[in-house]
Automatic annotation (TrEMBL):
Database matches in Pfam families: Alpha-mann_mid, Ams1-like_1st, Glyco_hydro38C2, Glyco_hydro_38C, Glyco_hydro_38N
Species this chain originates from: Caerostris darwini
Example GO biological process: mannose metabolic process
Source superkingdom: Eukaryota
Ranges where the Glycoside hydrolase family 38 central domain occurs: 518-600
UniProtKB keywords: Glycosidase, Hydrolase, Metal-binding
Protein name as annotated: alpha-mannosidase
EC supergroup of this enzyme: hydrolase
GO MF annotation: an example: carbohydrate binding
EC number: 3.2.1.24
Amino acid sequence: MASLTKNYRTTVERIEKFISPLYFIDVNLYGRQYPYKTSLPTLLHFDSNGRIPFKEAMEIGNFTTTKVGASFGPTWTTHWFKVRIDIPESWLGKEVHLRWHTGCESMVWTSDGIPLQGLNADDRQSFIVCSNATLEDLRQTFYIEMACNTLLGSGSPTMISPPDRKKYFTLELADIACFDRQVYDLVIDFEVLHGIAKHLPKESPRCFDALYTANEMINIIQKADFSRESYTSARELSSKFLSQHNGESQHKIIAIGNCHIDCAWLWPYEETVRKCARSWSSVVHLMERYSNFRFACSQAQQFMWVKENYPALYEKVKYFVAKGQFIPVGGTWVEMDGNLPGGESFVRQFLYGQRFFQQEFCKRCKEFWLPDTFGYSAQIPQIMRLCGIERFLTTKLSWSLVNEFPHDNFLWEGIDGSTVLVHFPPGKSYTSAVTVKEVVTAIDKLQDKGRVSCSMMLYGHGDGGGGPTENMLERIKRLNNVDGLPKVQHGTPDQFFSTIEEKHINQLCKWSGELYLELHNGTYTTQAKMKFLNRQCEILLRDTELLHSVLLAACRDEDKKAYPELELERLWKIMLLNQFHDVLPGSSIEDVHREASFYYKEVIKGAAGLMDTAVRRLFGVPEGRGEEEELVLVNVLSWQRTELIRVPWYKDEISRRMWIEGVGKAMQNISNEAGGGTLVPVIVVPMGYQLLRGLSAVKSSVVLEQKKDGGFFLKNQFLEAVITSEGCVSSLVLLECRKEAIASGCVANRFVIFDDVPLYWDAWDVMDYHLETGRDAIKEIVEPLKITEQGPLRASLTIRMKIGVNSEMKQKISIDAVHPYLLFESTINWEESHKFLKVEFPVNVLSPQATYEIQFGNLQRPTHCNTSWDWAKYEVCGHKWVDLSEYDWGVSILNKSKYGHSVRGNKMYLSLLRSPKSPDAKADMGKHIITYAIMPHSKTFQQAGVIQQAYQLNYPLHIFPTSHLAKPGASHYVTNAHRVLPLEMHESLSWFQVSDPAIVIETVKKAEDRDDCLVVRMYESFGGRVHVVLRSCLPIHKAVLCNALEDVVESSLQKVKWKGNNLELSFNPYQIISVLLYVEV
């Protein structure tokens, strides 16, 4: 027996050293897990010079002899090994492991190309060759695919530094060894007892029970010189302790394995494909031995990668999905960023994700699974519910620096009033190892004590994959029901959420609005090119779908009307992949962003080609120039709009005719420097087309005058502006009410540069203290402000300046005859280091709240710092516009590709560029084109048309030539009997329009799996209730409401009727409604 007098510290450390993998392994228990070892008789190597399939490696592999101690590399290269195993006959009946220590990732393959298990330096450096060696097992051959990168890439000197591209990995150990499972079981027992002794409060008797039990076990083993009998006796003691159970009221922890593989981050996309195979093969290998093991896995894209590249492994995955062990979750194509994607992109994540899981596994996901992203839009709850999901899991808000989120289980209410059930695992992690410390911490940190009786623990190596290990599963086995600890039990997400819904839903608190992460707010700005290309792709895909939908509904020719469904889906999925939460936010290595840029450009090229096809079929666009050629203007937005368009000079016949028709007085020639051509004002019908003819002049001309101080005075029918010689706005008056938009004594459009050095997460974080370092960004005026365009329709000024230390900017400031804003277009060559560039607008507005556009709506945030929750939002996310308003008056900032904003008091900032150096040392370096505008307005921003103007800035008119002549005097609308064929071209035609400006038609597409249906998706944008009429000239005979997955809403079958060419609908604030429109075939 142990001495009656014991020192707590020395006894705890005695237990620790007895099972230490680092100390005294020559005499402790840990070092006895492999009593017998033997080297490999044959070890051959082949440098594949790239990531190639197993079959190709076998076909071209020129294997040569290598040995332990050799090094392989450099980073990102792949090496194949042929391993022959000769098990000694004396090991018959024993468990035999292949041990492989390289410090990087590897995959074990059978000789006929079946992936068996991943290997890595994090708790998985061996593979079970056989658990009970027979004569047939003695001679075997395996192949090992070695990837020269770690689970978390190859950053140096820190994890998030740019990768060390010259790193080599040494084969430190390659052998087979006889594994002593009895010793291993004791090691796990000791781990658990040590954890209880160390992490339970010293006031707990169980703490010292564990301490004395483990101490006595060591005495038994050491006194008997590590005999088999002593192992048995020691296990009897541990079993006695661990079999003392809890009461019925003890908290239950549902343990769910996962491996959260980032689709790209500190490694490229291609490596993620192999990470999935390494991790999932390890998971199914464990499932074959642990029938109660449950593993949750999200991201349909990764399932698709495995299906395409590892079909044998995928069949095993499908088998365990059917058994209920391998559990698809999330319902999305990837784990996307939660702030930056547009609303329709969110919908498509669920649409394509849920369709994949339904097609592959005959089930849809019940939980939205997004453990690791950088904040969550307040419109997510409604989108979730429209996609058949009412449960949400994440952990990331535990990273907030300032405020601790007050709940782990709660109801989350979106801006439309939709609510979903949310769980934050109280362990604050998705990479738990199921240690006693983590179990104790989970219950200590639980925010909802007394409200819930269970919580989740997500365990397994993550981010770079790896997943659960045998050690974790063995600890769960021992922690299943131990007195003094929460009950740790295998389970599923569905079991957990069902328990909360059945027992605790009425005790939960509600959180309204966004889930703002008080960290990683630099990701709204980092890698500006990603944001720019993403918005381009979102817009182009939307417009392309609209035109092909019209063609599908209106064209009689079956060949011409063919909808490119597969190609559009392919392009959408490429863009959705790039919206992964480390790609679009800009927090990946250079290789990833280079590849993502290529993918975005592939989407742009592909969508442009599809649009060209639709336009040619709709409007008879000629291959070359024709004498009777006209221009057709396509408005993709659901309201009438007035714009200026540029008619190229080579369209001389069009220009001549317009002068004859009397429109010439409203035209303006454009210099070659400004693009060349003729500037023409146009008014185009809602979501339709208009031929360029018979247009009337605008109400008033633009005025541009130079002032004596070198500045300029600009004026149109809406605004008067004074621009200083430095390019700043010293005055901006809204003529309608004669109110000044710029704060007294201040100038707007002032460029401010900040020092931008975070605590660690370079590409991710903008710290609060950066606000203390702001100063003028302009160092020198290289070319003074000058007139570059002057005429009745538009006037422009241009200035070129040096900013920061090494950067230069050229900016054009414009005012035109038709838009109620002042426009700024900048070209910046950015070459800074750890600097943050913003543009500042001090405005003459007093308001405690600013309003920001988000997906399918808008959100208010404080402009003051009353509480820590308020001032922590010093950098926030918005989409196309932000508005600061008081009663009957306000100012909005519109933009074309920016997402970072800050409004403090009356100062509005638009974040333009950052310059972090990790993990991409070249992040944001180079040329950028940035467009934004300032729009003062009377009344509310809704009444002033801010939403519409922001859309118009981002969604330009499409202009196409057509050789088909229109019917003279044809009206905006035709009856359903007409079809929109080129031979029936009308002067103008509106395909869709809505009777109230609050409603935005966001999407028109062909329905999935239905060739006779279109989907029209709309949302209420003002934040109010409205009854509207949707009109269409297309041959529609029936309308049915559907959800975002395009399932028919049964309750709408009797309520929604298509009458004539109309459909009446009622919207609640920020409500999204999707309608299936059945087309006459």
